[in-house]
What we know:
This protein has 129 residues and is α+β, with helices and mostly antiparallel strands. It has a single domain (5-128), classed as 2-Layer Sandwich (Nucleotidyltransferase, domain 5), CATH 3.30.420.10. 33% of the residues lie in helices and 35% in strands. It contains four helices and six strands. The protein has helices at residues 19-26, 73-90, 103-110, 120-128; strands spanning 5-9, 16-17, 31-41, 46-55, 60-70, 95-100. It has a six-stranded mixed sheet, sandwiched between helices. The longest helix has 18 residues, at 73-90.
Amino acid sequence: MHYSDSAMLGAKSPSITQPETLVRAALGLGWACLNVDGVVSMPLYDGRIGGLVRSNDGDWIVGFVKVIGRSDVLQAELWALFEGMSLAWEYGFHRLLVRSDSKQAMELVNSPLSGSSVLSLVRAIHRLR
Length: 129
């Protein structure tokens, strides 16, 4: 099952809330929107990720697609978050509205314990924040 969740990263207390509310409330000057997704094709567990960064006006800035190799769905979603956030940072966007269809990935990266997660990708994403 997939969920449509969003989180504000770069704000003091990021949290998951309704995307429409965040878009109206958060995307002021200096904000960008990062949309990411990961997919794994069976039976080889071949993972691919992609995403795009849009300005606070909704204009496309940059996108990415990448083959990540053997993966499970959660890893693919986390890789998409990591790569997307890294790309946004490279383009100078440190305040992000992040959208992902993976409720599990968003809960992991928004957890107060994300910096000490057993998952290295969650810890890496935590360091980007």
